[in-house]
Design brief:
The chain is of the alpha+beta class and about 350 residues long. The protein contains eight helices and 15 strands. It folds into two domains: about 180 residues, Roll (PH-domain like); about 120 residues, PH-domain like. Strand 11 and strand 12 form a beta hairpin. The relative contact order is 0.09.
Length: about 350
């Protein structure tokens, strides 16, 4: 019997982001309120009779087995498991990965009955949670490649709230206590590590699930990578990353009935001199323990980069969050106009 406060909170959270389209089955879930939502969970999703629904969140998700397919999901956290109620378009999105999903219900495809896939990750199978830079996303890791999921919340508040709720639920789990730690002396505890670089911050929960947070060196590595892409135009010490945000690049699709827009996930990085768009791999890094070879692509791949000095104007939409921004740059790329004028008009 959930409290009134919890039912009100879950009802408030049950809203699909306005800029993302979902299937009819998920629209039905988003229309449920209060007690109807809790009853839907117990009659259609929950695997154990006595589990409680504690938190609900809408988020884009990525699976380790299908790293190129981002799909909308309703994420439900209970006292026993994390459930990902998926958009049914996901099954057809990546044909060569279709064995990842059980297709025993394919005979219902052409009927008016709408199905959703539900991916279940039991809390007892959970091993670690990696939180991304600036809490823009987090990756949940289980015991195999099938049990690695990244939630692209693109929102530090949603990430923080989910992590808090997950820690609270994990505290209820009865697990065998880990062995007593061996006492370390001061020098072995704080001495130089063999790896030559600092480990990420790890918080080991009482349930023995690791919560891993990025350290300052990740920003340093990212700044170095950005400087490389700038072809040495800027000296590294003065390069500061001012903003890192997961966004969408809007590509207008012409020729359709009404000009629709497709949203391409991108990582936007703003420095003191440039604006960059990167294609980032949110699911493969850091490498899981069972990975036998490195991922096929780098963590960051440059998609576009422009100098701030070439920025002509910024157009802002009037709609509520998420806000649309249009950056208009001058046509002349990587050219210093004054220098060229001097050469052309005043001799050699």
């Amino acid at each position: 019997y959930p409290s009134e406060f919890l039912m009100q909170k879950i009802t408030e959270d049950n809203q699909i982001p306005v800029h993302l389209h979902v299937s009819v089955s998920l629209q039905y879930v988003a229309g449920l309120k209060g007690r109807a939502l809790v009853e839907f969970f117990h009659s259609n999703i929950a695997e154990v009779e006595n589990e409680e629904l504690r938190h609900l969140m809408w988020s884009s998700v990525l699976f380790y087995k299908t790293p190129n397919v981002e799909v909308m999901a309703c994420v439900l956290l209970s006292t026993k498991a994390i459930y990902f109620l998926l958009d049914d378009s996901f099954i057809h999105a990546d044909e060569h990965q279709s064995d990842f999903w059980n297709k025993e219900n394919s005979d219902c495809e052409n009927s008016s009955f709408h199905l959703s896939c539900c991916f279940v990750l039991k809390l007892n199978d959970l091993q670690s949670v990696n939180v991304g830079l600036f809490d823009q996303y987090f990756r949940i890791t289980g015991h195999s490649a099938d049990h690695i999921v990244t939630c692209l919340t693109r929102d530090s508040y949603n990430t923080h709230t989910f992590i808090q709720q997950l820690m609270a639920v994990l505290s209820l789990l009865a697990r065998t206590p880990s062995p007593e730690p061996v006492d370390k002396d001061f020098y072995s505890e704080f001495g130089s590590k063999n790896t030559g670089k600092m480990e990420n911050y790890e918080l080991i929960h009482s349930s023995r699930v690791k919560f891993i947070y990025p350290n300052e060196e990740e920003i340093g590595d990212l700044a170095f990578l950005v400087a490389e892409k700038m072809d040495g135009l800027t000296n590294l010490p003065s390069l500061n990353i001012l903003l890192y945000v997961l966004a969408f690049q809007v590509n207008n699709v012409e020729g359709s009935a009404q000009n629709t827009s497709s949203l391409q996930p991108k990582t936007l990085i703003l420095t003191s001199s440039d604006l960059f768009l990167f294609d980032e791999d949110y699911i493969s890094y850091p490498l899981p323990e069972f990975a036998k070879e490195p991922p096929k692509r780098d963590k960051y791949q440059l998609a576009d980069g422009r100098r701030i000095r070439d920025l002509d104007r910024v157009l802002m939409g009037y709609q509520t969050y998420p806000q649309a921004l249009t950056f208009v740059f001058d046509d002349v790329q990587n050219q210093d106009l004054m220098q060229n004028l001097t050469l052309d008009h005043f001799g050699e």
